[in-house]
UniProtKB/TrEMBL annotation:
<feature type="transmembrane region" description="Helical">
    <location>
        <begin position="153"/>
        <end position="174"/>
    </location>
</feature>
<keyword id="KW-0812">Transmembrane</keyword>
<feature type="transmembrane region" description="Helical">
    <location>
        <begin position="98"/>
        <end position="122"/>
    </location>
</feature>
<feature type="transmembrane region" description="Helical">
    <location>
        <begin position="6"/>
        <end position="24"/>
    </location>
</feature>
<feature type="transmembrane region" description="Helical">
    <location>
        <begin position="212"/>
        <end position="237"/>
    </location>
</feature>
<feature type="transmembrane region" description="Helical">
    <location>
        <begin position="68"/>
        <end position="86"/>
    </location>
</feature>
<dbReference type="GO" id="GO:0016020">
    <property type="term" value="C:membrane"/>
</dbReference>
<feature type="transmembrane region" description="Helical">
    <location>
        <begin position="36"/>
        <end position="56"/>
    </location>
</feature>
<dbReference type="InterPro" id="IPR007300">
    <property type="entry name" value="CidB/LrgB"/>
</dbReference>
<keyword id="KW-0472">Membrane</keyword>
<protein>
    <submittedName>
        <fullName>LrgB family protein</fullName>
    </submittedName>
</protein>
<feature type="transmembrane region" description="Helical">
    <location>
        <begin position="186"/>
        <end position="206"/>
    </location>
</feature>
<keyword id="KW-1133">Transmembrane helix</keyword>
<dbReference type="Pfam" id="PF04172">
    <property type="entry name" value="LrgB"/>
</dbReference>
Amino acid sequence: MLPELLSTHMLSSLFTIVGTIALFQFTAVFQRKLNAIWLQPMLVSILVIIVILLWQDISFERYFSSSWMLNALLEPAVVALGFPLYQHLETIKKQWKSIIFVLLIGALIAIISSFVITMLLIGDYTIAVALSLKSVTTPIAIAIAGQLDGNTAITAFAIILAGFFGALVGPPWLRYIKVKSPKAQGLAIGAASHAIGTATVSNISYEHAAYSSLALIASAVITAFISPFIISFLATLF
């Protein structure tokens, strides 16, 4: 039934876009009502869409071509994350040295620990490169992984996994270890879980959103500069 409904491109696009948005919003409403952080709308939507596509034997290419409009909105949506950052710009200017230092240390730890642990347990350079870039936003991570002969498919998967894990586990874990500052929580989630984590903590407060957006951007830039040197050096040790 569903494949026949998607027979025309216009009807296909309309049905796909409306259905995807409705699924996301439906899950978001349930998450708020149940106060269940594990009911992450983006994660649930992806899983449900995968099941539907497999059930109806619809290719991902067909779904993607029908939902092109949603994909086109991704860029302005990311830009919109910069609005909370602008609102707290004056405060951030006074703390920028400390923020950059903290994010630099975080990026070093993420790259080194992931690469070393992967090489010790798996011993595969391409996978080690892919996993060492898991906390960076997708376009930058995939570009760096490609330049360093890493497995870009694993990089993309690891980024999604890190994003969802940070979005689901990050806020309650930070509260559990008594990290109560919105600034610290935002920086931690943005640095470790990029856009997905930032979108999640944006629902908590504008301050969370501002510092998470800052961490997302700064961590990506820092990683782009240091990762080729760090990974190349670590590779010589194995």
